[in-house]
Amino acid sequence: WLSSKRQDDEAEGLWRICDSLYDFTDFINKHPGGSFWLKETRGTDITELFEAHHLSNVPASLIESYKVRDALNERIYTLTMHEDGFYKTLKRRVREKLQTIDTKKKDNSDNIHFGLLLATFLCVIISARCDSLLLLALAGTLVCWTIIAAHNYFHRRDNWRMYTFNLAMLNVCCWRISHAMSHHMYPNSYWDLELSMFEPFLCWIPNEHIKTWTSRCLSFLIEPLVYSMTFLLDISTRIFYSICYTNIMYWHDLISCTIPLSMYLTSDLTLLICLRQWLFIVMIASFAFCVIGLNAAHHDPKIYHEGDATREDRDWGLFQVDTIIDRSDLKSSQFLVLTHFGEHCLHHLFPTLDHAILPDLYPIFYETLDEFKAQLREYNHFQHILGQHCQLLRVKPNLKSPGST
User: Fold this and answer.
1) Distance between CA 132 and CA 136 in Å, rounded?
2) How many domains does the chain have?
3) Same domain, 243 and 173
4) Which of 298, 302, 349, 383 is the most buried (most CB within 10 A)?
5) Same domain, yes or no, for 157 and 212?
6) From which residue to which does the signal peptide run (predicted)?
């Protein structure tokens, strides 16, 4: 995906922000431990990434010393971030609001995440000692909740909590690319890697030439299997490419091995049985993750997908609103928000902010939505599940653009 993006963006081996090209090589050399984003995005257009991950005005002033020249060609992305547009207006208001918000609320998120991590290993150890299938299933669910809670941390600079995302064979670096760089910036478009990575088994793009009646029916039948095998396919793919092509394995891939190791060291089970139970835990975690994640916000016939009519105002923030329907049944609990991808729309707009802070932003969010004639839509989980399956069946693009009357 990054290789193709480098070809499409034509950033001439540099970093593009709006219509200017920058060379951040010296910055990377001076900050080798905190420049993951810059290392991976060399040769690409990082306009949306830069704006969404920096609320302060300071970075915009600092990068001027790294500017090389103006870009030769126009951006290929039609999304805009005008100073008087929706996103920049909301961003200014959020920046002011953050000065009055009690940031200690983030401690609640930290405590929930640590509690989930501790509960996961306790459940894993007890399940091994008791040889209980029910406890193994619970352990898989706890692994799922822990890695979803870890998602709260991996849009920021490197921190130990984000690496708990690796507990179920996932890799935080790979998901930073597919999720943070791709999906978060361009949801439900052809640039959204998370939209295409489930094809041909699950296809949400409305296209009657691709989605035959047989393939649509088949997706319903194989959906449970896809959910259960997603994590295993992810690690298998990375192992295959690491052996045959370019190494994409990291030291923190070994974090997932702490689960079978803890089972082996605290019980009288053989290593083979521990590995078998570990695979069961991973498959349960994978199934739960997909049930939650694929029905969290982005797939419904009323949500914009590639091929649908677009809003006349191509503001990046409005595009995010058009590709999301929030979960209405999570807002009363920070635990549910952290473990079920809650506060989804605000999280997409300001991914570096802790989920505990997002509820305080709703008054100005609603105010700005009204000003730009947009709306935050909300469904409960059952409605999301129903809508996601309706989207799997949909082949006709919406001719009515979002926001139109």
Assistant:
1) 6
2) 2
3) yes
4) 298
5) yes
6) none
Contacts of 309 (CB under 8 A, 6+ apart): 397, 398, 399, 400, 401, 402, 404
pTM: 0.94
User: What burial class does residue 332 get, using C-beta atoms within 10 Å of its C-beta: 0-12 exposed, 13-18 middle, 19+ buried?
Assistant: exposed
Pairing, β 67-70 against β 15-17? unpaired
CA dihedral 195, 320, 99, 108 (to 10 degrees): -40
Residues 128 and 192 both lie in one domain: yes
- Domain edge (last residue) among 42, 77, 112: 77
Structure confidence by residue, pLDDT tens digits, 104-162: 889 999 999 999 999 999 999 999 999 889 999 999 999 999 999 999 998 988 899 99
CA–centroid distance for 27 within its chain:
26
Burial of residue 183 (number of CB atoms within 10 Å: 0-12, 13-18, 19+): buried
Reported as type and span, the H/E element at residue 17 is strand 15-17
Does residue 405 surpass a pLDDT of 80? no
* 51 and 137 within one domain: no
Given a contact cutoff of 8 angstroms between Cβ atoms, the answer to whether 177 and 2 are in contact is yes
Weakest mean pLDDT among 32-46, 105-119, 179-193, 344-358: 32-46
C-alpha 202/C-alpha 220 separation (Å) is 9
Task: Return the C-alpha torsion angle 154, 305, 370, 105, nearest 10.
Answer: -20
